[in-house]
């Protein structure tokens, strides 16, 4: 097995010279301003070590990666009844598609497309005001990342809201079927704010530990969620974590992962490590070009694919 | 870790009493006649042992499970250029849907839906007649299963052909876009016959070893395909192997698997075992009800989920 | 040619005994309370006579019939540039479908499905506040119907708004593509209120005269709109006026018509008459069951089909 | 009213100089060879006169215009039970779309899209061999056109067959649902040959008389079909006769019409005339560019719109 630190440093060094980096997300004005030439990586191992390279200490907008954490919390809050309102299947459509909702009576295919994540945000409102729900999300992230400085970028949250007509359409559409059960603006408020949380690669790799270690912060550390729940969330990451590029990510990388249009990806190597990469340039499916490439190389070099026997 | 033999026997004993078994596939007359009250399981381990229970020695029609083996062969034959004609993404539609083909210029989403498997069958015709292509498929299966008795059930093949109007529609549709490149009847001939191959659970578990052991017949055995190719096929099984129930199978079972409407499922626990289950009753997505349940229990008892850390 | 008065009276008498009347619209609470056992008909002829039978003096919610009048006004206001934001083709989908919008970049297929009518309402807001736009609509209706008592049923308007999540979804979705250009709430406000206008059969038949007489209130009367515009609106009524039942209405009745989920239909026999029928029970496409039947019988008896040679 | 002969000659003279003519159909090799610079027009009036201009004596492939005549015959053969297997609604999709068939259990939306016309061809096979069905179609056309020279262009028929993979897909797909009831190759054989019938504008205008005159060859001539049936076929032409450009044709021209990808259009002015135009260049929906324009100008000049009052 090669040395992890060398592998991480080689990847960061090599990718820093890449010209082809995709396009920065343009539909949220605040994200469009992020300089494309950045790359960060952080790997937190079973031994509790965190190895970083590149721009691993620069905060970025986690966007859809937040969906993993809100799903964890919503399952803790309302349990498996969540699955009556959102499916577990890959969508076969773009992340903001509304077509599938019409065919399936307002029930989104999975919690990682926008519609599904809005349902999860709505579930967070059970017995709670939007402010309380957001507080719970932040507290959870600070706890699992062991970092009290994590916060919401309010400028990004406003930017999301002002341009979020498609998400507003999705939410109202689901409200028509009773799949959204609280005030539409409240559910969207939670959603827009969770997407605007800013984290560094280091913070994100730390936050993903409980998914890599069957619900614990390390193989023998404190339990955050039940082992089965952690495994199931990881399964959803593998089948649905990269929008309509999920199959390709599983094919190339072989690890459960969740991407965000801010250019970040959280990936986990079960039992071995939690990994976070970030580079703002996206491919046509909305996934980080360099981030995917970095994870492909890391998984190959370390033989971390879950499909390796 | 519990004893594998006990686990397998307990599962077989318990499932034999189940009343809820779904429906036997009705659209192929020969399959509709298979008695629903059967269940078989076979597990071939890294140590080379095969543990069986129930009707593990009864041959059944492997149907779509054949798609795993023809994909392996077609990639060996024409390499990665196959991916120009078939995608790697979950479909979000039923196994025989034609809708997606219209939106995506005749290119099927993945090699495990019917349309994709017909493209793979077409690729097997590169420089070969249908008879030769089928010969190659049978030879491969006999080799990896180490059993020369595996054969095609001609009555099932005829039954497929006579009722295969939707598959004929799919093939002609793709031919219109140049995605099918050989004679449509020839490609369908290969496809209908590969689906009609009859195997027992024991044979199928043996045949799946190369996927469980990174391309080898055992961790230290002879190499069948490159390690990376084996991992990639396993990735496709996890994201696309159970039609529109793939996400749910990953969520519940956590293993790469491929189901067939004959009621069989081949699943692999990378590095640990190749597993085959069979029970003819299907759920609404076309996956074996008891087969899925058996694998869920086996994976849980043995902690074989690829997502366990 | 039979006597029009007798024909109208016979139809009303016969239909009053019908048992099969469909279902009253249920998704707007105020409409769901309308007693199903009502039927009205009014025919205004080229000679300026208005013949009525049944409940022709009972006001009902005109709902989507309003779309004909707002289209007329919006074309007067912004002219043919409206057609850059809404198409002229039948939809092939339900009246409140959102699927087509995704495939066609937010541009609704025609001005008579909900999405298209919301675009028309948005066009009415060019240089005008919602209140002014609604004022213009009411003034126009009172003028063409020659009746100052026509008004908006505010209770219905509130009911529309409270349950209008799908329409809110449509409007936001189109706003994301820039097809809706003003404040979404304002456009919806105009739309919800125009649908809540209450009219009698007599008033509606009078209001439709300009469509029957090539833009004039009678063959030699004052001009309301250009002849070509009146013909074109009539063409849209024929191809798109009954949602996904438009083809069947043209097939059976052979007249341009526009239905509303309040149970009303406005139909025109070019050069001969403007006709309004009303009965609250709807078929599965949202068109009045008895209304369609009455028009079929009237057109047949009077040989008014536009396809008769 | 202007003089018809002058109007026709002016249109032909003006259009002969047009540069923008669209594209000749490319997917059938024999059609792709037709020189684009041709234009013909023929008008047969209620008085029995036929006025022609341009290339009105040049035979062209009538293609989908044949669907009007086979519908007439199939309704004569099996009556209204045809409507259990094909709808009457505009499709909202391209002429060769297969998407709608999946959503609606193999029943095409109307008899003028390809799938619907193949069902009509299948209905012609009730109690008849393909050769007999084609004989009946030719006999009918020769009778209503009063011209025994009308024939099938076998080279075009072969060309259709060799490239007809999408139509073969449609037919097999419908066969899977039992909507096609005879041998798929037979139904396609009839369909490919009916499309390959060659006619001149003069012959086609003559053939359309029974639709213009409520089922008779002239207002007082011999009856071909019942008046109601003629009106209903005309209604379908108006709502569905120009594929996904039907609404626009009704909007601009205001006459029932049926186009073919050979560049011909048959249109009728009920009670007044049967009109045929031909020019091989097509718009993106598959309708003749100059043909549509000629009909728009003719209908406007003669005030023939069915919506004029």
Care to describe what's here?
Four copies of one chain form a homotetramer. With 309 residues, chain A is α+β, with helices and mostly antiparallel strands. Chain A folds into two domains: 4-62 and 198-302, DD-peptidase/beta-lactamase superfamily (Beta-lactamase), CATH 3.40.710; 64-195, Beta-lactamase (3-Layer(aba) Sandwich), CATH 3.40.710.10. Helix content of chain A is 45%, strand content 12%. Chain A contains 14 helices and ten strands. In chain A, the strands form three sheets. Chain A has a five-stranded antiparallel beta sheet, sandwiched between helices. A three-stranded antiparallel beta sheet of chain A has the order 4-6-5. In chain A, strands 1-10 form a two-stranded antiparallel sheet. In chain A, a hairpin with a 4-residue loop joins strand 2 and strand 3 (50-54). Chain A is globular and about 55 Å long. Chains A and B meet through helix 12 and helix 13 of A and helix 12 and helix 13 of B. Chains A, B, C, D: Belongs to the glutaminase family. Chains A, B, C, D: It catalyses: L-glutamine + H2O = L-glutamate + NH4(+). Chains A, B, C, D: Homotetramer.
């Amino acid at each position: 097995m090669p040395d992890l630190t060398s592998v991480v440093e080689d990847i960061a060094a090599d990718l820093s010279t890449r010209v082809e980096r995709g396009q920065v997300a343009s539909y949220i004005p605040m994200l469009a301003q992020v300089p494309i030439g950045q790359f960060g990586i952080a790997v937190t191992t079973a031994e509790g070590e965190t190895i970083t390279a590149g721009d691993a200490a620069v905060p970025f907008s986690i966007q859809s990666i937040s969906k993993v954490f809100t799903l964890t919390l919503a399952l803790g809050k309302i349990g498996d009844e969540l699955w009556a309102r959102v499916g577990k299947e890959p969508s076969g459509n773009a992340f903001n598609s509304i077509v599938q909702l019409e065919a399936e009576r307002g029930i989104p295919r999975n919690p990682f497309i926008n519609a599904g994540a809005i349902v999860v945000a709505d579930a967070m409102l059970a017995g709670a005001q939007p402010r309380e729900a957001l507080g719970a999300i932040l507290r959870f992230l600070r706890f699992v990342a062991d970092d009290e400085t994590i916060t919401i970028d309010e400028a990004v949250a406003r930017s999301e809201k002002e341009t979020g007509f498609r998400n507003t359409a999705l939410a109202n559409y689901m409200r028509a079927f009773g799949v959204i059960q609280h005030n539409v603006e409240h559910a969207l408020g939670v959603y827009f704010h969770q997407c605007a949380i800013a984290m560094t690669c280091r913070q994100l790799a730390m936050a993903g530990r409980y998914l890599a270690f069957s619900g614990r912060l390390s193989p023998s550390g404190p339990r955050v969620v039940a082992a089965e729940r952690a495994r199931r969330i990881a399964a959803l990451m593998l089948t649905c974590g990269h929008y309509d590029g999920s199959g390709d990510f599983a094919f190339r990388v072989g690890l459960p992962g969740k991407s965000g249009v801010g250019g970040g990806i959280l990936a986990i190597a079960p039992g071995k490590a939690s990994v976070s990469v970030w580079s703002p340039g996206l491919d046509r499916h909305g996934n980080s070009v360099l981030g995917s490439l970095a994870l492909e190389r890391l998984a190959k070099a370390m033989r971390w694919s879950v499909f390796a026997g």
